[in-house]
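Session log. Operator J.P. requested a structure for one protein chain; no other inputs attached. Running the standard single-chain path with token output.
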Amino acid sequence: MTAPDDAMAPAPAAPAAATRPFYWSVRRELWENHSIFIAPLVVAALFLFGFLISAHSLPTRAQDYSMLGPAKQASHLAQPFEILAMMLVVTGLVVAGVYCLGALYGERRDRSILFWKSLPVSNLTTVLAKAAIPMVVLPVVVFVVTVAAHIVVLLLSTLILAANGLSVTPLWTTVPLVQMELVLLYGLFMLALWYAPVYGWLILVSGWARRATFLWAVLPPIGLTIVEKIAFDSSYMSHLFGSRLAGFAADAFDFDAPGGAGDPLRMLTPGRYFASPELWLGLAVAVAFLAAAVWLRRRREPI
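Structure written below.
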């Protein structure tokens, strides 16, 4: 007897794995924009270099700090960690702004948009992948680099103090390093949400402007502020823009919280932050800007 034809037929091939267009779109941005990683690493390296140069004075400063109270001693010992974190946060914001201004403009200028549009990746996926860089990827990069640099500073400080016969106990017990890292992670993502409309606006300008993206990004807000002041003698627009650039901390943190110096986690106020109408209004504006950027990418031609 012969087996039926169906029994002799080869088994159907397993379905191909999903191409994951969003994932590969994000990977593409990382491949094309090395400054996302390089800039924070360079800033951290420069800080560590400066820290090594000033290390000769660390034993003297540590002895001076020991004469202060525990709270002040912890504050002084934590200063290098706080300065480094602030430098990297500012670096991340600068990199995010530069990236957003070139996110859609760059592919139009070098005409690579013709190639990318030929791929089965929607304009929505592309724009969302670009928005994910300043809002998700860069905060993670800044956090990882900061934590790694903090560990290096802690180990260097320990070696220097031990080599000079000084106790390292205050450094390890009074500096709330773990809490500081958690506060940093919280602050980075709260800042990313607060800056969402700024990033959305910059990406929109990147998809619209034919040249001088920075000027097109900053001149409209400045112009609105000047026109309002001249026409109505008011400053609502300047207050709005100023609050968007520097106002997130007032809702995200309570800097007067009892015990905040010893335990920075006490300063976190996520409930107040997520209850802020300004946050949700900003996110709605960001969605509108990104929707407009998707529409523009579908219709704009190479430069």
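Operator note: The two ends are 71 Å apart (CA to CA).
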